[in-house]
Here is the input.
Amino acid sequence: MPLNAVSSGPPAQPRFFLRQIPVFGDRILAPMDGVSDWPFRSVCRSFGSAMSYTAFVAAHDVLAGRPLAYRALHFSEDERPVVFQIFDDSEERLLEAALRLQELSPDAIDINMGCSARCVSGRGAGAGLLRDPLKIGRIMARLSSSLEVPVSAKIRLGWDEAERNYLLVARAIEENGAALLAVHGRTRAQGYSGEADWEAIAEIKARAGIPVLGNGDIRTHDEAARRLMESGCDAVLIGRAAMGNPWIFGSRPRSAASRGELGQVIEDHLRRMLTYHGETEGILAFRKHLTRYIEGRGIPPERRTLLLTESEPDGVRRQLASLGLGASGEVERRSAAPAELRPALAV
Ligand SMILES: Cc1cc2nc3c(=O)[nH]c(=O)nc-3n(C[C@H](O)[C@H](O)[C@H](O)COP(=O)(O)O)c2cc1C
Here is the structure.
């Protein structure tokens, strides 16, 4: 079989619908600022991640026409369904930004109601919105009645242990026109500590009339299957554990991949990073992925340091080859053909 051949198609039946858009598959790469750029999203999508969420973009950056914000929203057609995620504390700015972004033809627009970072939640955006379910209701109502594309939201369980108001928030979101709800099973106060509460996620799913995506702490292929079954969610979002492991979206675990296949995936991802970010930034931004790809491969610490400080793409390739991780394997994926990025977005 030639490299980059399409060897396994998507599941025949849609798992759920994003309003009328069928979504094939039940594992989806979670939005991650600084991580889920076009290269990583498209690699994960080619392994079977069922749709693509961009990382969040500030509504005021969209309205100010900041090129970096628009750059984060670049996508390729083969990623569809594509969901643009935005955040802000202002109802007006969220609506204006969403109207503007709709012109760029995403399949849906998602409002971030989960970011716990102080600079976001502290000013009432991201998870800061969870403290005001009435405002959430107004935002969803205005966006869903003004936009043609579906609107969705990604939430946490509440502001803190004393304010776990997720059932109220989920209802405000659904009753005001959302087409989809994603839930990270922690409160804002937890940040990333403790464990995601999947019973709360299941509770939301049991009461919801719209698709619910569960999220938090899925580390393995089998765990994803278990969480899906136990929570009844329509799909799961997988974030941190997908780094270095896009196999988590496919039908075989990463441990089944040969060194050659791993090398091929690394090369493909690297190539996309260089295309998207340019050589200098691409190599730097790739290091956080590379470090995860090579985990557990028995690479001596000094060789690892050399590899992760290499600044030339060909140097990285040479070192990988000498470690037996050269690009030489076959990859079983939905579609691994490099895709054209949508042209520079109008600002
Ligand atoms: C580096 C990083 C960046 C993130 N950026 C976003 C973001 O832009 N939008 C969002 O909704 N969530 C963001 N998240 C949260 C993830 O989508 C997800 O909810 C969280 O990591 C829990 O899932 P996990 O345990 O599978 O990683 C981010 C998480 C990380 C680690």
Remarks:
- Residues 244 and 292 are 4 Å apart (CA to CA).
- Residues 30-35, 55-56, 85, 112, 114, 154, 184, 215-218, 238-241 surround flavin mononucleotide (CB under 6 Å).
